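Hey all, sorry for the wall of text incoming. These are the two entities for the joint prediction.
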Amino acid sequence: MNSSEEKIHSTVIILLHKIAPEADLNKLLNHSDIRQTLGIDSFDFLNFTISISDTFNISIPEDDYGKLVSLADIIQYIKNQNPQFS
Amino acid sequence: MADFCMPSLGADMKTGILVEWHVQPGDRLKRGDIIADVETDKGIMEVEVFEDCIIDEILTQPNTEVPVGTTIAKLHSAIGQESSATSAQMIVQNGQQAAQGTKELVLETQPGVPSTLESQPIASIPPPSAEPSESQRLKISPLARKLAAELSIDLNQVKGTGYAGAIQAQDIQAVALARTQKQAQISPEVEPAEAVAIASPATVQPQLRTEFQTRMRRAIATAMSRSNRDIPHYYLETQIDMSRPLQWLAKENQMRSLKDRILLIVLLLKATATALTDVPELNGYWLNDNLQVEEAIHIGFAISLRQGGLVTPAIHHADLKNLDELMMTMRDLIERTRGGKLRSSELTDSTVTVTSLGELGVQKVFGVIYPPQVALIGFGKITEQPWADQGMLDIRPILSVTLAGDHRATDGIVGTRFLQRLDFHLQAIAQP
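and here's what came out:
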């Protein structure tokens, strides 16, 4: 991970913690399925995508939900959508 | 002057922790206003008043645990003195009856959890006085009387939490439990009068919070054991082709901003609520050996807590809400459930339950009915499956919907009709 990726990573972790404060984020590896690992339901996930969209100033069409499975996916997605973070 | 008592927010609730008051002496409250936050096995709840009133005195300090039925505040009716004596209308949470002649403002317990079934209002009986005379008939449910006799409990030591202070089975159980605890701690021979004392207010210790999970587990255990013991379940399943609803939803969401998107579960809830208006027999309670159909459709939606446990807050009047309103209600409910800020009515009003485990990957749900409800609808995972339609084989997204029904209340044919209507309404949402 380069420094820009690390920044995205730590921000995403903060957002996840806000959505699911009671979830154990230590269990989450870079390639783990976030929803399965943390027990994120569709409402949590919607809130999570809203917060990512707002924070990184990107739009996330519903068709792209499949690209947001793991932390690694999300970091890649944010970099692709907003060059400012790549 | 009326007593405001620690309400029973579930048949298995013995004590509640008064977390915080929302009012001060002298405050005027309208029906439905929040008076206090109370912590139970199911989380912190905002307790509402069911009558306009004025707070006279607060008796219980915040962070204090008290038994159900303990007077925690004194208040008087805001309507007028005469009304509190004779015509105070008590709005019952499930809106079924109003008792007359009640002097006490009493929070109704869960509308018919089995141990409170017997506590139907006894409107013709005068309000309780501080010291009931021999001639005055004690207000007590038959089951409570039987329990008291079995457990050798002196009825004069029991504070009723039902209508107008009527003693219910759970009041007896609370005293019995307190006595058991006292006996375990102090001596093998204890009079009931002393036993009540052990349940008197005690400041909440930090470990009570850590015991929260254990208590919630016990609450679930009690309700589910009762369900399995008393309810003869029947199970039906239908498979629904979700092609059209999913296409409709995808198209609809494309036009919406991220914040306004609708989730599939909301479509399922809407179709469920509408189908229940077609087949109302599944929306109600099994009470006193009778099916009591409820007019209002309050869907209890099972929300699992990540730290373990389950809460099923009610989506009030789900049939009258459109998709956007349902979406908003659900987001609010889930947020407050997880944050531990539900209102008392949301935990006691559900007329039917919906559980959706499909999101976590399970195909079919075989539900356990939450008594005294008579049905539970389970949504599984949508999977792609081979599907034959008009002689053509295709691959379609298929949703398994199951119904657990109480066979005392309805027969399989009613459940069948419901599942057919559910399918119909789900497809109908997708019609232009």
